[in-house]
Amino acid sequence: MEKAIIAKNITKKYKLYKNNKERILDLISPKSYGEDFYALADVSFEAEKGDVIGFLGINGSGKSTLSNIVAGIVPQTSGSVEINGQASLIAVSAGLKKELTGRENIELKCLMLGFSEKEIKEMEPDIIEFSELGKFIDQPVKSYSSGMKSRLGFAISVTVNPDILIIDEALSVGDKAFAEKSLAKMLEFKEMGKTMIFVSHSIGQVKQFCDKVLWLEFGMVKEFGEVNKVVPRYEKFINNWKKKSKLEKDAYRKEAYERQKSILKFPV
Ligand SMILES: Nc1ncnc2c1ncn2[C@@H]1O[C@H](COP(=O)(O)OP(=O)(O)OP(=O)(O)O)[C@@H](O)[C@H]1O
């Protein structure tokens, strides 16, 4: 099987500062300030060509960070990502410039993806039509609602026909009719054999749409495998998690970060 994505030992470190003074001192002083926080610790997974992989995990588990790294939007601290094809990330407002109009954003994003002016002019009407933005297309993106930004981002990404599609919570904002249209487009892409990553909080959508699931927990891979094997275990976990008290959740989190420390034997 041909591989579309090979992510190896991905670690993402953020610095957490107590205040701006610490942040500035860290920049200008040779001494290190702030606390290291690992949003991802040694995450590896592979996607075969045509795989549709759902990223699942509770809030803050690292789903968006990993999808942004795979899309090349955010750099990893260590590890490697090999992409076989052109990825295109659909995230609410990802890559959209606030000061530019919707139309200018279409042009900019397509230019950055390597399309010619002629190709862009040909794609533009399709993008505008899919986005349902109408006359708002010539208004600056900063005046858009999150649903409108999401529609524009989604419309650009599906029209440029990428080899690999990364959809980050695109269906959670905006209206139901648009979500259904987007899901239909994603199913069309799935039938065409495109590789897709789908970041979602909706277990139902993941079940409906994905073949495999990468379950992240506090920046670590909890499970990676077939959707019908992983989802039932994730559902069981979520049901238990919801029943936990704050104290129990904190204890679980603490234990997970201890595990993270042992994974990161050689912190980067
Ligand atoms: N720029 C940043 N600086 C510091 N910490 C960050 C930054 N971006 C993300 N994080 C932290 O990294 C962790 C993972 O965040 P991420 O958004 O990837 O999680 P997620 O699984 O997508 O969460 P959600 O389901 O809430 O969208 C979180 O604890 C988050 O606070």
TrEMBL record:
Domain of life: Bacteria
PROSITE patterns registered for this protein in UniProt: ABC_TRANSPORTER_1, ABC_TRANSPORTER_2
A molecular function (GO) term: ATP binding
Ranges of residues in domain ABC transporter: 22-243
Pfam families given in the database record: ABC_tran
Gene symbol of the encoding locus: tagH
Organism: Pallidibacillus thermolactis
InterPro entries: AAA+_ATPase, ABC_transporter-like_ATP-bd, ABC_transporter-like_CS, ABC_transpr_TagH-like, Bact_Polysacc_Export_ATP-bd, P-loop_NTPase
Family indicated by similarity: Belongs to the ABC transporter superfamily.
Protein name: Teichoic acids export ABC transporter ATP-binding subunit TagH
